[in-house]
Design brief:
The structure is a homodimer. Helices cover about 30% and strands about 25% of the residues of chain A. By secondary structure, chain A is of the alpha+beta class. At the A-B interface, strand 2, strand 3, helix 2, strand 4 and strand 5 of A face strand 2, strand 3, helix 2, strand 4 and strand 5 of B. Strand 3 of chain A pairs antiparallel with strand 2 (about 45) of chain B.
């Protein structure tokens, strides 16, 4: 039987684990936080400042990724592993923390090729390394069977003695800043769902589907923002307007965005917008899954590397409550919701 | 529309979370470990001794539970929430640690009744409280959509400055002891998969299906075993023989079980074995999911409350390697494997 035809149903759980574990090691990586790795009932991770930051997130087949997209692209195990790691690492980043460990629970249909699962392990590890989570290792996991592929990761991290940056701390007068991109994953989703095959895309267009499959959260920016005195911060996983409204509501403030800054974010998306005949501002305002960071800083603070100013925090008016405005005018909330349509 | 007909597809994610979060609070519970609870990008949990013990586990519909069993029993949301908490709390217990926090990722088909999800939250919290995880709270979670119900929990815990009890530390001469039950969940599974309706079961028989749906890991026993000097310990989630073999292999020893002790464990299962015409020893040796603890203690140590001696550790013979024996004779390994059949 060729190796490509070997499915997980033909291996015992220990046999499958024996193929995955060696791939989860990160050679040359600083894994000193891992006091006990895979193989026992639980893992043990150092928490040097006496606190653990923890988040959990799931990727489900046909919801968070499609195995085959309308434009013909086939999602690889590498993509799914990458995205599972990136999305969870981003939540830790959004607190101003650095990830120290990741545990993964994989649910696999019996006909899943073993090679696909090995590829997933490779993608997970590649994301940890290439995104710069240099103190993070994969400390453990769980394998089970199901009708659809589902990957849940929990990531823990450390604030290194610092204070967490919450969503709720924005103050009137603060500068609103963005690290990372906005709308790239949404543009990529639109291209993947189009009938334009990847081979017809220019290199400038091809970058967008790759941001949908392998998002690149700016992992250095979270701790840098904390150290620079950020007053509030969050991951923009559900789109700039929707997440901006959450930050506004949590702080009881108005997030006012500058049209010029939004135009600059939209301009980068022109290669995708033109081929699809879309207004790129819709992607900037509504598109999620780039996993950029939205943060607020006291006026006058020099923004850390990677952040660009995109607006300011205002006190809410007497009649209007917290919300998001663009140059002072109310902005409609767009984004993505798991259940409602 | 009656409340029972309300499905998750009719609520937005914030609306559904607003129904779940209040149920996850544990009134009167010592939640001082939770420094930041649900509502931000990540939670923050105290790790007073500078270490975090972490484990992750998933329950999938039709794999780990059936929504409706052959005998007519319908699995409740409460059952699924309970089992998700119990199974994860057991992994922390098996290190000799106490759980401090639980985060949950729920994947739900759109037609899942909201009441079923609320019931799941209630079951999760009930297990935490009734099993005695008094320092544990639910610190956060994630909601998503899928074709089948899937519940992943990650639990973190503390060793309170103590050493972890690993699988690998058993020494020849040690006493092998069990806390909790063996085979009860397997007997329950056999009853659920039979054609005998619950109404035809005696109270003594009904306890077994309830152990399958709502396992009761002995959460006080893990830290007590650590304090008593246990040399090795693990959760028996895949059956006594299979887990015994893992402990034997990890320590390079032979786990020798006493037939009399096994008979005593089997005798308790008689009410289920008789009605089904099964040899109860099969359940004792092969049945998983009771989440009892298998531990080894130096000879002469007084076993902590809840543990009973079931055998001893022997050095491996010159020709035979590590393994499990019953009164010195090799025991066939039975248990349950996620992929192979």
């Amino acid at each position: 039987m060729p190796d490509s035809a070997l499915t997980v149903s033909r291996l015992s759980e220990p046999e499958l684990l024996a193929r995955i574990f060696p791939r989860l090691e990160l050679p040359g990586h600083h894994a000193e936080a891992t006091l006990l790795g895979p193989g026992d009932d639980a893992a043990i991770i150092a928490a040097p400042d006496g606190r653990t930051v923890i988040s959990i997130d799931t990727q489900v087949q046909d919801q968070d990724f499609r195995l085959e997209w309308p434009n013909g692209y086939r999602t690889t195990g590498f993509d799914v592993g990458w995205k599972a790691a990136a999305q969870n690492l981003s939540d830790i980043n959004a607190m101003g923390a650095a990830a120290t460990s990741l545990v993964v629970s994989l649910t696999l249909p019996p006909d899943t090729p073993v090679a696909w699962v090995e590829d997933l392990a490779d993608g997970l590890v590649a994301a940890v390394r290439e995104l710069g989570a240099e103190r993070c290792s994969v400390a453990g996991g769980d394998l089970g069977r199901g009708r659809e592929i589902s990957v849940t990761a929990a990531v823990i991290g450390t604030l290194d003695g610092g204070r967490p940056v919450l969503r709720s701390g924005a103050q009137p007068g603060d500068t609103v800043a963005l690290a990372g991109t906005a709308g790239h994953a949404a543009a990529g989703l639109a291209l993947l769902e189009s009938d334009i095959p990847a081979s017809k895309l220019s290199p400038a267009q091809q970058v967008f589907p790759s941001r949908q499959s392998r998002p690149r959260p700016p992992l250095a920016a979270g701790p840098a923002a904390r150290q620079a005195g950020a007053t509030a911060m969050m991951d923009i996983s559900d789109g700039l307007l929707r997440e901006g409204l959450r930050l506004a509501t949590a702080g009881g403030v108005v997030v006012d965005l500058e049209p010029g800054a939004l135009d600059a974010l939209a301009a980068v998306l022109a290669p995708a917008a033109e081929i699809l005949g879309t207004d790129a501002r819709e992607w900037v305002l509504g598109g999620g899954e780039d996993h950029g960071l939205l943060a607020t800083f006291p006026a006058g603070v020099q923004l850390p590397e990677g952040f660009a100013a995109i607006g300011s925090i205002q006190a809410p008016g007497r009649t209007d409550g917290p919300g998001v405005t663009i140059a002072g005018r109310p902005a409609g909330t767009r984004g993505w919701d798991h259940f409602a349509h």
